[in-house]
Amino acid sequence: MKNRILLLVFAVVSFSMLLGACGDSATPDGGGKTITMWTFAQNNADEWTARKADIEKKLNITLNIQLVAQDAFVEKLQGAMMTGKDVPDMIEWMIENNRILASNPKDCFVYPLDEFVKDSATFKKVVPGRVAWVTYGGHVYGLPHDVHPVVLIYNDTLWKEVGVDVATIKTWDEFFEASKKLTAKKENGKPVHYALPYSNNGLQTTMFMIWQQSGAQILDASGKPTFTDPQFKAFAKKWAEWVNTGAFTEWDWGKFGAMLKNGALASYTSPDWWVSQVTEAANEGTYKFKVRDLPVVSAGGSTSASWGGSFLAIPKAHKDPASIYKIMEYMQYDKSAITARYETSGMLAPMSEIWDNDVFKQPDARFGGQKLGELQVSQARAMPEVVSGDIFWDAINDFTEFYQTYYAGEITLDEALQKTQAAATKRLK
Question: Domains of the chain by range and CATH?
Fold first, then answer.
């Protein structure tokens, strides 16, 4: 009996030590299992593939990376979960327009991570402004891959030719007033240079980024739409004033770099993944480019925003989410890997712990030696928290529809907001 008790005590102590070894400060052991991950993004798949051997060795797993077409991803995941066959251990999915998260965990395709993240020292270092994008109904559902902080990149040569030093501008009102000088030069009745790109399509591209700075949410804490609330109405009316200055040209994905190179586009708001559009123009040397934080919408407001991104999550069909969470957290936030992520892709990981690394303090020749990484880090720290929810992305599409009708002159802006509010409210369960 005495020996059996000693053996039991030894087993308990050993198990406790094992649990401790799997904590935040240690590398989890996957027990030699094959871990299947689906991702929708080729660039992310490339990153995981490049790290595959190291991940497998460190975590004691075989990592099976599967690239699933974005337009088939949700349907394929739903089908696998319904049949119980070939369900991945983890998924990497997009923050924007996602169809897998829900405020009620019963309606969600993936596990809420609440019980895991509350005890995680690592997760506490993930910037709150980024966590907000994967939080629905107070539940955290994913581990963000990136921050995607937004900066303002501008052609210092063109702006200074018209007597404007963009570095000194404090507010967007000042920026758009100054842009009248930039757009004054015309050929065939159209400006030679434009201040910003935007397609007059509602909360998309540039408007989506600057809207975040305003603090005007489109959903309240309970998930109900707020398009007719005074704060959002004030921003929408201000935006209409800015559009009417003539500062904007069409956001052309295919010709974006060429427009920077020929001077047609003199500045743009850019997340980290879009900065490279200026590279060719900057390297050519015809113009000098600079970078800065965003002017504020109003005094004391945010100078920061975010656009795009992805996250790792665990499908609800998985039988052991706790073990997958540990693996997933290590994969996403391994320190050496996320500094390499910035060096190779220019994308900033949301881990504040690593932002003091020298890799973020290097001068960037494209911007005359300015330290882009330091600016992006400061933008990440200042990132506003956006309230997401079940109808968030559909509500944005509703606003886009009615904003375009307003822009065509068929309805007033107030009517567009009222119609958006009504359409979004109908989406509530």
Answer: 2-148+307-381 (3.40.190.10), 151-305+391-426 (3.40.190.10)
